[in-house]
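User: Fold this; tokens only.

Assistant: Input:
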Amino acid sequence: MAETVTVAPREIHDLVYRVSRVAGCDPGTAERIAENVTFAEIHHGAAVPAFCEALDAADLALSEWVTALDVLLAAEVEARSTGRATAEFASEVPLAAIAGTLHHCMERGMAPINLQGEPRGDEAVSVVTLMVAAAGTEASIARITDAHRHGVRIDRQAFNQLEVAAAKFLVSETTLDELE
């Protein structure tokens, strides 16, 4: 088993946000990616390594990590008027890329009917079928609360890779002045 490190969810969110900005994403897109990776790491695990793999493989700002979110939300809109809709991604994406957004869809009364069991954050997804259903988030709230109290165990190598990539993010003038 790979060596792990315990980190606060806010650390994951902050590093993924900064790395996404360095990779060319606008602030809103970087925020969405950070929310998805953090949520997926808490609920499914293996999200940070999946994100790091995406950084090595493609131009993040033009990848499915960005476009899949819009496809998923468009399917939600369609499902609201027809009762059911399918989000088909141009290529497979890890669950980590859409997990938080999918959870928000579920909070708004959607149910993914083709995702079963406890998938890992690095598990590939090419299609999500949504249908209107009742929301149920009690277990999710408990898991998030526990993560904020006790931290999240993630792969140390992936976390170190995030830290190195995030170091390229712009530092404020105030911080730089303090260093002098």
